[in-house]
Design a protein that fits this description.
InterPro entries: CRAL-TRIO_dom, CRAL-TRIO_dom_sf, CRAL/TRIO_N_dom, CRAL/TRIO_N_dom_sf. With 319 residues, the protein is α/β, with parallel strands linked by helices. It folds into two domains: 73 residues, Helicase, Ruva Protein, domain 3, CATH 1.10.8; 178 residues, CRAL-TRIO lipid binding domain (Phosphatidylinositol Transfer Protein Sec14p, 3-Layer(aba) Sandwich), CATH 3.40.525.10. It is 49% helix and 10% strand. It is built from 15 helices and seven strands. The strands form two sheets. A five-stranded mixed beta sheet has the order 2-3-4-5-6. A two-stranded antiparallel sheet has the order 1-7. The radius of gyration is 19 Å and the shape is globular.
């Protein structure tokens, strides 16, 4: 495999591991990668619906890796992704880390990359739910924050290959954190974002989930696939989390050996400033949603299913 570029969290000693994951889990090898990139660029060139689209390796490999180098499936996901960006501009337009609202929730340490798991190579994202001001902001801001973090990290090959682990501290969350989600946003997020954003989300850890939130989650997850449920881990206490997650990763406040969330967030904010131009340039991509030619997308991304969030889970495509 070709040498991989540096990432936000270095991959020291992980190059061979990433090559192994790419080969065994994603079917990636040099010749297939080159052929797939060529085929995908030709598809973009001939697709009259796509007026502007990134065609660099890093961007296209997001989709090819998630779809294990099935070019037709990668092309369909790319078209879904572009369609979704224009269908939900309130979530995707101007993902500017200097935006006042996004800056405020970032500085509250609502969602912070904390390190790279040496066992799996995955980047680990840590969220403190109670730090999100649900009286001031709604779920649109929460989704925008998730999209900003994902888009900032997705061009990095290690993250495309090894994937992401998310950890959420739910201690101290209130009903406002639940009720700030409208049905439209919940259904749209589940059905569209999870199916259209090329992220390999491999683990989700939830800590100290209040009883009222646990009941809602349990009901929703009853409709999820076994594969999705297997990637969700609930821990009653931080002590239980420490038994499952390397102390080398966890922030100092959580009994780990890492830096404090504030220090980690300051590093991430500096990284986001370096990515600001690239993040804003995503808005230059365009798909003609009114073009009558047959699309790769065979159902409306923006459609909210009749049975709401429950139907959304039935549509999830889990890598």
């Amino acid at each position: 495999m070709a040498q991989r570029a540096e990432t936000f969290f270095p991959c020291n000693g992980l190059s061979g591991q990433l090559d192994q994951i790419a080969a065994t889990e994603l079917r990636e090898e040099d010749k297939l990668r080159d052929q797939s990139l060529t085929a995908m660029r030709e598809w973009i060139r001939q697709n009259g619906r796509l007026h502007r689209c990134r065609t660099d390796d890093r961007f296209l490999l997001r989709f090819l890796r998630v779809k294990k180098f099935s070019v037709p499936m990668a092309c369909e996901m790319l078209e879904r992704y572009l369609t979704m960006r224009q269908t939900y501009p309130r979530w995707f337009a101007r993902l500017d880390p200097e935006d006042a609202d996004l800056g405020a929730v970032l500085d509250a340490c609502c969602l912070v990359p904390i390190g790279r798991d040496p066992a799996s190579g995955r980047i680990v994202i840590f969220g403190v739910v109670r730090n999100f001001d649900a009286q001031r902001y709604n779920s649109d801001t929460m989704i925008r924050l998730n999209m900003l973090v994902a888009e900032a990290l997705l061009d990095e090959e290690a993250n495309q290959i090894a994937g992401f682990t998310h950890i959420f501290d739910n201690g101290g969350m209130t009903m406002a954190h639940v009720t700030c989600w409208t049905l439209d946003n919940l259904a749209g997020y589940l059905r569209s974002v999870i199916n259209c954003v090329p992220v390999r989300l491999k683990e989700n850890h939830f800590v100290s989930v209040p009883t009222f939130a646990a009941q809602i989650s349990k009901y929703c997850l009853s409709f999820a696939s076994e594969k999705l449920r297997a990637r969700i881990h609930c821990h009653s206490t931080v002590e239980e989390l420490r038994a499952k997650v390397s102390p080398e990763l966890l922030p100092l406040e959580y009994g780990g050996n890492g830096a404090t969330l504030k220090v980690l967030n300051e590093r991430f904010r500096e990284f986001l400033r370096s990515k600001r131009t690239a993040l804003l340039e995503l808005d230059e991509m365009e798909i003609d949603l009114k073009d009558p030619r047959e699309a790769a997308v065979h159902e409306d991304v923006g459609e909210v299913v009749a049975d709401g969030a429950v139907g959304s889970f039935r549509k999830l495509s889990i890598d």
